[in-house]
Every structure is written in C-alpha cells, then in structure tokens.
Specification:
heterodimer, A: about 325 residues, alpha/beta, Rossmann fold, 2 domains, five-stranded parallel β-sheet, four-stranded parallel β-sheet, disordered N terminus, B: about 425 residues, Urease, subunit C, domain 1, TIM Barrel, eight-stranded mixed β-sheet, globular
Amino acid sequence: MTDVVLAPQPAGNPQLNAHGELQHLITLDGLSREIITAILDTAQPFTEVAEREVKKLPLLRGKSVFNLFFENSTRTRTTFEIAAKRLSADVINLNINTSSAAKGESLLDTVDNLAAMQADMFVVRHGSSGAPHLIAQHLAATGRDYIHIVNAGDGRHAHPTQGLLDMYTIRHYKQDFTRLTVAVVGDLLHSRVARSQIHALLALGVPEVRVIGPSTLLPTGVARMGGNGGKGKLRVFHDMREGLKGVDVVMMLRLQNERMQGALLPSAQEYFKYYGLTPEKLALAKPDAIVMHPGPMNRGIEIDSAVADGAHSVILPQVTFGIAVRMAVMSMLAGN
Amino acid sequence: MKIHISNGRVIDPANQFDRPADVFIARGRIVAVGDAPAGWGHDGANATIDASNCIVCPGLVDLAARLREPGFEYRATLESEMAAAAAGGVTRLACPPDTDPPLDEPGLVEMLRHRARLPGFAHVHPVGALTVQLKGERLTEMAELAEAGCVAFDQANRAIVDTQVLLRAMQYAANFGFAVWLQALDPFLARKGVAHDGEVAARLGLVGIPVVAETIALTTILQLARETGVRLHLRRISSAAGLDMIVAARAAGIAVTCDVTINHLHLCDQDIGYFNPHARLDPPLRAPSDRDALRAGLASGAIDALCSDHTPVDDDAKQTPFDEAEVGATGLELLLPLTLKWASEMNLPLVKALARVTTDPARILGSSCGDGAGTLAVGAPADVCVFDPHASLRVTRENLKSQGKNTPFLGAELKGRVRCTLIEGHLAHDGAFA
C-alpha cells in the first residue's frame, strides 16, 4: 500500500481518469462543454423510459449503489434511488446523521467499511464542502478507485446532478445556450446549487449570467468565480428588478429559514419584498422566460405561489428530468 | 570536548560574517572563528567535522514550535520534536502556551523546562499564557511565570475579546518590561471561517475569513501598545494590509516587531487545491498578492523573523473534510530549506536571509534567553548548524522526524540538508558523519 490518504494533491481534475473520462462526478467546476453535453445527450432517451410500461433498463444490473447520506434528505435520496433502480442496480440506503458520526467513527472508516461490502458506487451527501473529494482521494490512494463517487451535495461547494438537470431543463425549453441571459437569484453564499449552475452555464457558452441577491448572501469575489474558461461574463446585481430585465431564464434558490436568525437578513417579509419572485417582477424578464427552482420551495419567501404554479414555471419538469439525468450519470460512470 | 569544524563557509549574520573559515569549540562554547585559538594544543580537537561544501551558521532560532507537551502527547512528544528540531538545524525555540493545560502556572513552565534540559535538546523558551487558561478574563502571574522561565506572554490563537482586559494585560506586562506576543485576529469576523475570504473560498464553498479580521484586531492592538508602551511582537502576519499597518505604526514610533510563517511565505489560498487539509492553517493562507507582500516585507526587514509555526497534528485529525481538519502544519525540519528557497527566489545574499532565522528572532526573544543566542561570536554557546545548500531533502512521511507528518509541502523536493547540528557543543544531529 502507498503512503495512504495524505498524499500530495493530485494535479488536474480528480474526477477524470487518465483518458480524460469521467471517473466520478464530484463537481461541474472544470468540466468541459463536451462532457456536460455528453451527459445531457445520454439523459435524453432516459426521459422516455419513464413513460414505458416497464420502466427498467439493465445497464447497472448486478451493481451495488450505496446512497451515503451524512445529511438528511428525502427528496434527493429518493431521486437517486429511483434512477438506480430504473437501471436495475441494487440500492442500499444509509442515513448516517451527524450524531452517529459523532459517536466516533470517522468518515473514512465508514467509507472503508462500505467499500469492503463490494460497493460499485457511492452517492454521497455531506455537510462539509470537499467531503466527496476526500473520499475519492482516499479510494485512489488505497487502490480502490474502481468505486465511483457521485456527489449528491457537499456543504456549500457543489451539487453537480442538480446543476446538470437544470441544464437539461434549459436545453429542453431554450435549445441554444449561446443566446441566453440567465439570472441566478437569492442566497448564493450558502448554495451548492448555485455554484454548480454557474460553472455549467459558463461552460455551455451562456454569454451572460447574472447573480442577484443582497450583499450579505453573495460570496466575496463572486464575480470572479466563473470558471471553465468560458467567454461568458458574470454580472452582479443587488436590485432584482434591474437584474431580471430581459432575461430568458430565472433560476431561484432556496432561502433556508435559519438564515433569518443571524445578521444576514432582517426578516422574511423584507426579503420577499425585495428579492422574492412575484408576477410583477417576473414581467420584467422576456415574455417567454422560464422559472426554475431546485426545491423545496419556500412559498411567500423567495417565490410567490402565483409564479411557482404559473405558466412560466418549469419546476415540476425539473424533477422529472432529474431522474433521467441521474440515470445518465450513473450509467456513464458504471454502466455495463 | 573540543570540536574543530573545518573547511566550511561560515555565515554569521549577527556579525555580517561570510567567508571560508574554521570554527573551534571547547566546553560548549565557540572559542575561535578563523585561526585556532592560542593553547588549542598539539593534541588538537577530540572531534573534527569536515564541512567541505557546507555552510556553517548559527543554529536556527524558531519563534513558534509546538512540542505538544503537556496534553497532546498522542500528537508528538518532546523526544520526537527535539529530534525534528535537531534534524532541522533548530537549536533554540519558543514554545507557545496553547498546551493542555495552557502554560499559565509556573509549575507547568518549570516542568517543561526541566524535561527539555537534556544534552542534545534545543533550548526551549516557554511563552507564558497572558491570561488564565487563555480565556481572556484574568491575568496570569506574569512575574512568577517569568521567573520560571517564560520569555514573553501570549494568547495563542485565542483573542482577548474584552479590550479592557487586553489593556490591563499590556499595562501589567509593560510594568515589568515583559514582551507581549499576539496574533491579530478578530474572533467575530473570523467566526467559523476556514479559508481566506476570496475567490478560492467562494469557488470551493468554504467559509471565509476576511483580511479585515486581521486589520481590525491590529488597530486595537497597536493603539493599546502605543498607550501602554509595552514591547509588542505580532505573530503570524498574513496580509499585505496588515503589514502596511505595522510599518506605519513603527514609523509613528510604536515599538513593534512581527513574524511570518514558512507556509505563508511560500503559499496562498490557491494552494488549497482540491480541499487539501494540510493547507488548513491559522491564519488562513491568503491571496497571492498578500504572499508576495510578505516575501518582500521579510526581505526588507519590515517583517523581523521567519518562524516554522511548527504544529504536529495526528493523521486522524487531518483525514477529514477541510473544514473539520485540525489547523496547523509541521515545520521544524522545513524552516531551513524554505528559508533557502525564499532567499534563492528573491536573490538575497544568504547572510541576510539567514539573519531572519538566527540573529533577528534571537533579538525578539530578548536578553532573558542569555547572551550569544543566534550568533557564532566567540564566547557564544556552540549552537551550530552545518548544512549542504546543494543537497536536497525530499519531504516525505518517512523522512520527517517529527511525529506530525502534516505539511502542505509533502512530496516537495527542497534544497538544503542539515549535515550536523550542535547544541552547546553536543552533537544533536549527525546526518553525514556517523
């Protein structure tokens, strides 16, 4: 065995193998337009599987997918479970909440134990940014990188399958990314979803991404956060009305209730008034603009029910596409 | 015991000395540099060290090395870290008070000094806690602690939130002429932070610590230092803006010195890479422009000293996600090679670069550590480092003597290998002549 775990940081992107193919899906940061497009293309036929009488494909038959959730989530875990089962995988759900982790077993001990149970794939959600990277490096250092990792959300860092399903949704309704203006609105500071969305949008050639929110909810240096070498620019707006003018896509973010307790925001009412998406603010966007939300929604805080349930909303199709996109990711990583 | 170090290039920054010369040692002291002293005798030395192609300089003086005793023996022991110091050419070190329990009672300080008083062990200078249990509430018995051997008083990385306590602590220290060492970090602005508040933290989704956390704390500390006239040393400066404030304060007549760590001299937030837990440091690695300002500041003398900030951490506490990882990096064995790396990259003469790890930190330790610290002057204790500037050291877990294998330089190949280390004439490390 090599020096284990604390080896120097690998050069390049740790989720790609020596041939530049996806080994894990940990982040969209650094993924090329070609890889992202390939995932979306792979997802396309999977949307039809859901409409069949028998909703099963044999692509992961005989494979074991472990849903490793260190943070509570029913919705995301369920969509991964459905996706894996539609690909005929065996799915094992593990909810390892922080209290049992606090009993002593370290993250890597947990991973070692599960790896010893012949897992083929870990779907990981963790409260700390970078936890899936740590697991991937650990598996690589111990010669077990045949186990694939799919990041189902880590801290504030990334939620790549959410970012991908959002891209799938945009492509479904708008086709060409290179003519779009897209707004990402709300609590970017705490949002792993927003970080994944921004990387994907710029990689796919969106010329202008607008981030809209109060300064207290935007990360320092957000304007320089864009990656992937795209030519698109990131523009920051604190005035939502200004930021929504003429946009094609409005991507709302969830505002967690606990943000109201600190000094980040004075009240939910004031937030809704200035940063909640209402029909009247949405009217500033293009007439055919679509409205997206990663869920779960806080109606009356970041989004008005009239918008959430209105004609521009594609929030429920997002959920449907999400299963196809997760099937695409899983089959590309570990498919027979 | 008489030792003759022959054929080396002797660099003694305290005396601006840099030329080929022999060094003669007797009874634990330097007795001559150059020609053999009168009465060296026909029998000559008991031992000769051939320093051909090597540099002979004073043993390094490190202003911050955690030995992890008492309280954290599972991370390191005095024995393991003393071996690391000797292997790194470090012969004198100050030990921060953040042990468990903290160094806030004379008995603890005496015990540490007693344990460290062995032939071949570096001189250990405990830095006492400024407040009881480092809580920032009640003053420690500073005079008693100084008698027990403390060279200064420090809060480690726990800020004194109550500014009245900070004022009183400085007044009381100034009353006895004691030095106060502080790290400038506002605990509110740094709350939950794990990385420099900039684009890297934004991209990786890490909670940021803004530069103002340093500068706001500096404002308070510098104003109180002016008020009290205390001898102030600022530890681990991390930002260009912070350094500017110190330079301005000095120009305004405030007596203040400062240091920087080897990690902050060479690395920046981009070196966090993919969440490398070894780059989880306190203060956080800052922007490339900050690092460049620190490098220039150490060269110009705006920053007085370079320290290892040696912090051995066990693997379990580093094999975690970045935000859960224990802060700190091992450093005693990297202080010399990273000084040389900086000197070479900045085109600095060695006599100037080595001053930052010998005579300059010795000056900050002050007279309480005894005469002749950090120099090869005749009469000084024979604390000597002989190193080969061209031989390289590969930083691997196996090659590090420290019990802590945690450093962002793991895997690096660094120029500058210690051939031997003498502490008061005792051969503490012998890397070539065994």
